Amino acid sequence: MPKKTKRQKQQSDLRRNMVSPVVQKISEPVMVRPTGVPNNSKPIERQYILSEYDKTLKMHTISDLRKTFIITFGLFALEFFFLYAKLNGII
Questions:
Q1: How far apart are alpha carbons 73 and 65 in whole angstroms?
Q2: How many CA atoms lie within 13 A of 52 on its CB side?
């Protein structure tokens, strides 16, 4: 097996350095806590910008919920009507 040339040695050194980089030690962050300083920061208020699709979807959802509650209430009222009518002997 022939010996490596100078150029081949340089290439292998470069490849070795690229494959295994030197791992740097990361120091732990130091937390600084203020002593005796009151927290006067205000809470962040998020403002949501609704698109036209979101507005129409919200409008239709609310109207659908309203209709659902009305129908549900009507069915319960009808059930109570039939229950009391049967108990009183009307039906």
A1: 12
A2: 0
pTM above 0.90, yes or no: no
pLDDT tens-place string over residues 11-31: 888 887 776 555 556 667 666
Rounded alpha-carbon distances, angstroms, from residue 75 to 4, 29, 39, 65, 80: 92, 64, 55, 15, 9
Number of neighbours of residue 31 by Cβ within 10 angstroms: 5
Domain ranges of the chain: 50-91
Q: Let me know how long the chain is.
A: 91
Tell me the per-residue pLDDT of 62-76, one tens digit each, with 9 for 90 and over. 999 999 999 999 999
